[in-house]
Specification:
Layout: H1 7-27, H2 35-52, H3 63-78, H4 82-89, H5 93-112, H6 120-123, H7 126-134
Helix pairs in contact: 1-3
């Protein structure tokens, strides 16, 4: 992988490369007879983009492959009925209960924690001291 002083740029390029490679792997073309050629062209395209500081994807051998994979996945979803789409996107009872429990725990922890930024003078103020004692601090 290539690294820049700008970690966001490195992360974006890394995600693009990893995502694209996964799409190509799905098609099996990285293990076929053209695998070495495709990998060499991928590297050349990435180096060209990195040297310019932005990706144009000129002569990128996997871009058409990635587009086809994404198009096939989109077509599957587009053919679903609204009810089928709702089932896919809906959370299970377990997921809903997990979220509720996490929220309850986070709220409880927050309410039990000592407020941040209080110095010793503020903590010794009678009103704040009384409130903190009521919170168990």
């Amino acid at each position: 992988f290539f690294f820049f002083n700008d970690t966001a740029t490195t992360e974006i390029y890394t995600e693009q490369i990893v995502g694209s490679v996964r799409c190509v792997q799905e098609t099996g073309q990285l293990t076929g007879p053209d695998a070495e050629k495709i990998q060499r062209q991928m590297l050349d395209s990435a180096i060209e983009g990195l040297s310019k500081g932005f990706m144009e994807y000129n002569n990128d051998p996997i871009l058409p492959i990635v587009r086809n994979v994404v198009r096939r996945h989109v077509e599957k979803v587009e053919k679903l009925s609204p009810e089928e789409q709702g089932k896919i996107l809906a959370l299970s009872d377990y997921q809903i209960n997990s979220i509720r429990e996490s929220d309850r725990k986070a709220k409880e922890d927050y309410l039990k924690s000592e407020p941040k930024g209080l110095d010793s003078a503020a903590k010794s103020h009678p009103t704040i001291k009384k409130a903190m004692e009521a919170w168990g601090h």
